[in-house]
């Protein structure tokens, strides 16, 4: 009866590769070209929700999710919250990882991170207490190892920290009828609270070779399988040593250990700054996202016809897919920006045929309370356009051109000239006043909207008054001249 | 029965899908991997190629497929086991099992994002369909969900996972008969079909009576069929456009 033979299929390094790595290290070279104390590229991304982070350290890929719930506290700590860390060595990370029971290295990793976060008092537990002895917040960090490229501890640690820094728990108050009920407020109604984190413990892993003579930082997967011993130092940016883990392996001199700790403190400061930058970028982006916008009315991406296929949509698929393919991950909302840009540009161009192209947008819609502004801003760009409009509009264009120094509210001027043409027939003073009022009212609205928006309102008011005056003059003067003559 | 226009929370009409995105070869250790996202529902699938040996209850004359479903948070429960079973049966009909007898191919599915609203939804008819390329319907799977008994479930995870797994299998080079795509259709209280429902939408829809007409079911099937044609085209184009960057996977 054939049985599963996974264990025998475990990956083993060949003798040649092993010798190659050892020889290279003896001459201070690493297989991927790094120097012995160089880290691989660290890439921190966040998901759409709070408390969701994805860290890539070279080829190692770790995801962290933070969730919270209200539970009873431990009996010996009635006014402290609970922090639990679950590590999941997913079989997709390494063929030797098995689903189900966590292996030794998984448990060790969980312990190292737990020690760094909880026992060093990095996360404030007392702020998680709601009702002492009865209800506290329990924060659970789920770490998923997706890809094992070596040095899982460091990557997982950064992922856990990034997720905890961006996590926000819902606000809850004690109230209700009897003053004993706990009300958990909806995150959309009441702003959720971030966790209180005092310091950031960063773990730095060293691998030892050749009986402790050679040490490297951040070993890759292949270097890990060749190493003689491993040590992880958890240090924060102040230089405080939070934890040290050296479990078995080759013996090293104490001086080597001290040197490693010194190097680790330098590296920890570096990683802390990277982490803080990434978190800040995410926080600003999240704050921008919280600004309420009108729901997008644009059709979203792939649209299916009722039962039959429409050719139009098939043609749009390559464009849509090309756009989608170059944005595989919606980590930060950087992809929202280009989408909004395309939409405003097509709108400004008045391109109605590009509606299908607009359909690729999924970001927030532009919010323009003064739609007329689009017209004037178009016009603001080119003085010639204004002049052309004036030429076309009316026969008082000489007056218009001389007066119209400001390019604002050309649409306003067009409407003014129209109104003026309409009222050309009236001859008496009363009629003149009536006409003034007649076109003052509709024009004012226009002017008000556009001018206030464009902050040239005082020019507009002056212009209106002068125009009215001139119009009246133009009406009276000919009649007076006639009388005089 | 005239289809009624339903007002959906994110502005889609009843026939519109969320934005699709597919990237292959995202992992370094796995033989094949794909990341499939439909809106906010993101699933990562990894495939480890044929390993020698099968489990005791499997047929040694054929290759067997092992599916491991990893939820986003929490421990593995019955829901995950059910997903694994459905996915396994689907992929067994998609792969050419006779080429590598007595081997096991592992497919690991990790949920990266789901429309995470911890709200219980109301009764809803869910039709999840897995369709071969422009041809027949392999499995139209009816799931009647009653909230307080079954608990929280996101209906659009399974179609997303099926799409991701197929893309990952293709990326790993496992011989397949065809590519399968999946779509989820929901039936609202007003008996109109909506495609690709999100978790929020389930909260809104209610059903007064428990009888589901056969007409509704076939209506669902038709709509889903058309939608799947679209998705399969998208999948095909994405596979053609992405040239494999890392051809060697030795470990």
State the main characteristics.
heterodimer, A: 485 residues, alpha+beta, 6-stranded mixed β-sheet, 4-stranded antiparallel β-sheet, elongated, disordered N terminus, B: 251 residues, Ribosomal Protein S5, domain 2, 5-stranded mixed β-sheet
Question: What is the topological layout?
Answer:
The complex is a heterodimer of chains A (485) and B (251).
Chain A: H1 15-26, E1 42-46, E2 52-57, E3 60-71, E4 82-89, H2 104-119, E5 129-131, E6 135-147, H3 152-166, E7 168-169, E8 172-175, E9 181-184, E10 193-194, E11 202-209, E12 214-217, H4 221-226, E13 229-235, E14 241-245, H5 254-290, H6 311-325, H7 336-349, H8 355-358, H9 372-381, H10 383-393, H11 397-403, H12 410-422, H13 429-454, H14 457-484
Helix pairs in contact in A: 2-3, 3-5, 10-12, 12-13, 13-14
Chain B: E1 20-24, E2 32-38, E3 41-52, E4 64-70, H1 78-94, E5 103-113, E6 124-132, E7 137-145, H2 147-150, H3 157-172, E8 180-187, E9 193-195, H4 199-204, H5 214-241
Parallel strand pairs in B: 4-5
Antiparallel strand pairs in B: 1-2, 2-3, 3-5, 6-7, 6-8, 8-9
Helix pairs in contact in B: 1-3
Protein name (chain B): Exoribonuclease phosphorolytic domain-containing protein
Pfam family, one (chain B): RNase_PH
Family (chain B): Belongs to the RNase PH family.
